[in-house]
User: Fold these one by one.
Assistant:
Number 1:
Amino acid sequence: MQRLTFRKPARRQRGVAMVETIVVTPLLLFLILLTAEITNAFVEHNTLSKATRSAARYLAANAALGTTGIVVLSGDLTTEARNLVVFGNVAGSGTPILNGLTTGSVDIVDLGGRNIQVTASFPYSGLLGGTLPAFGLGGDLSTVLNLQATVAMRAL
């Protein structure tokens, strides 16, 4: 019967775990940050889409003149719809639902045929700000993305 003998690790194997940790840690931190950034961008785009959908629904319910089939986008109605996208209410009170979202970034168009389109654009700058430093390897990298949501609905 053969006996199993355990050998001590060779001297050159000492510290390998620490070197592997030093090499892998920045990669793992980058992946965690990337996951958080993508999740935040997705949540903000979802918020923008829901607000745009609410404004289109509001316009679809209020823009048609009775049974005439004529869509009228009055100044007050478009202002209320823009406020609904930006502030979440037609009065335009409170803080914007997304930092940096303004009523000027909301476009409302009568497409004809009783169809109304609402488009909202939002400059997403990320969790770390609008730029990432290049550390002397060229110009800084811009992380600003233009999130856009467009909804078209038929006026009722």
Number 2:
Amino acid sequence: MGQGGDGAFAAIERSALAVAMRQELWLYPSVEILHILGFVTLVGSIAVLDLRLLGLSRQVPVRGLARHVLPWALGALIVIVPTGLMMFLAHATDFVTNRAFLVKLCLIFAAGINAAAFHVGAYRSVDRWDSGMATPALAKVHALLSLSIWTGVIACGRLLAFV
């Protein structure tokens, strides 16, 4: 990072919220716990749908399952984004140079692209394979990619403290 980038991230770390995140005994751990709970909800919701797409529980309609789990995933994002930003503020200069953090962000972006591609692609024909039918190969590819990407995000999240 150049001096300008370092200065901006150092300034972020001097913000009142960043200082509080580092100095208040229970603030950072509480925010981290909320972040993890949100992440568990997000990835759990997505994994249930992905496993259905891979052929488990074929009697469960894909559209019904999606209508059930996707609001949970979106709700989880409402928790994950601000808590993740709060943790970033506290250690911005460390995070922007941490390979695990950078890979995590790239994987989250890839997960978003994969989900969008699934919804504008394979999911458009869901009425033909919604329940009791084999999932099309392209939908299975999206599900495998999703499970793999989110596993990588989880791994990178854990590696943040060690890399």
Number 3:
Amino acid sequence: MVDILNIKWDGKYAVADLTEDGAKEVAYTVKVDCEAEKVIENSNGEMNSYISQARKALCENYRAGKRPKKLRILWY
């Protein structure tokens, strides 16, 4: 499970903190270009499944016109 916290929207860009598996600590900070659907900054330095799922969720919300401050993605 990944939690997407502290989302800041700046036009087509979203900057967010990610936590993984219900942890309290921020694991990653990402900046996503929601129009191009690309991660342009990533504090981890490499892509992983948490960052990929967060990018997808942020882009879907951007296209839907939603600007939430917190998202939760459950893994099945």
